[in-house]
Structure formats: structure tokens, C-alpha cells
Amino acid sequence: MSKEIEKIDELINRKKIKKIVFIPSKVQIWMIKSDRNNNVYWADLDKNYCSCKGFYYNYKRKHCYHITAIAIANSQNKFQIEYIEDSEMNHYLYNQIDNIINNNI
């Protein structure tokens, strides 16, 4: 089994993948928690985007394994899901950004 497949299996099996759905708009974002540190990555399957460094540096060649992990977890229905009211979207996103900034200082 390749290292990438092992990483993907670990993310799925350790329930590190979460789909955030805002209602009633149905806006969706995916969140992946790193197994190695406190990093959290945000992804959008429709736009083929991930906030990780690997995606940034490998964008022209391929997408990162986080996007692949989300696609597999989604197809197997093996992810956590959280519903948040649209009225809380700005507050939720602000808190997430604040956590990212404060954890990376």
C-alpha cells in the first residue's frame, strides 16, 4: 500500500474529515484535521481547492491527498457532518480564521 493511500485511510478511519453545511443555503465546506499536528485544512471539492501547503506547491502537477481523501470519504459516506445556520456563518468562519492565526504564531 502506498504512503498516500495509508494517509488517506488513516484520515478516514480516525474520523478526521468533516463536512460543514450551512442551512438553509446549503453552502458546504470540508474540514480535515491533521494527524501529525494541530493543523486544520479547508477544502472545496467543487473548486478542487485545499488550503494545505502541498496543494499550493503542487497545484500545477496534481491535487493534494486531502482532496482525494475527501472524495473517497464522501463516496463511502465516512465523514462527520455539522449543520450550522446561515445566520452563524460569519461568526463561525471568523472563529476558524482566528484559531488558524493564533495556532500558527
What attributes does this structure have?
105 residues, 4 helices, 5 strands, alpha+beta, five-stranded mixed β-sheet
Indicate the topology:
Layout: H1 3-13, E1 17-23, E2 27-33, E3 40-44, E4 49-50, H2 53-58, H3 65-75, E5 80-85, H4 89-103
Description:
It is a single chain. Helix 1 (3-13) crosses helix 3 (65-75). This protein has helices at 3-13, 53-58, 65-75, 89-103, and strands at 17-23, 27-33, 40-44, 49-50, 80-85. The chain has four helices and five strands; from the N terminus they run H-E-E-E-E-H-H-E-H. The chain is globular and about 45 Å long. Strands 4-3-2-1-5 form a five-stranded mixed β-sheet. By secondary structure, it is of the alpha+beta class. The chain has one domain.
Spatial order of the strands forming the largest sheet: 4-3-2-1-5
Count of DSSP helices?
Answer: 4
Relative strand content: 25-35%
Run of helices and strands: HEEEEHHEH
Secondary-structure class = alpha+beta
Q: How many extended strands?
A: 5
**What is the overall shape?**
globular
Task: Estimate percent helicity.
Answer: 40-55%
Report on the biggest sheet.
5 strands, mixed
Distance between the termini: 36 Å
Number of domains: 1
Radius of gyration: 14 Å
What is the residue-mean pLDDT, rounded to a whole number?
86
Low-confidence stretches: none
Can you describe this structure in just a few lines?
The protein has 105 residues and is α+β, with helices and mostly antiparallel strands. The chain is built from 4 helices and 5 strands; from the N terminus they run H-E-E-E-E-H-H-E-H.
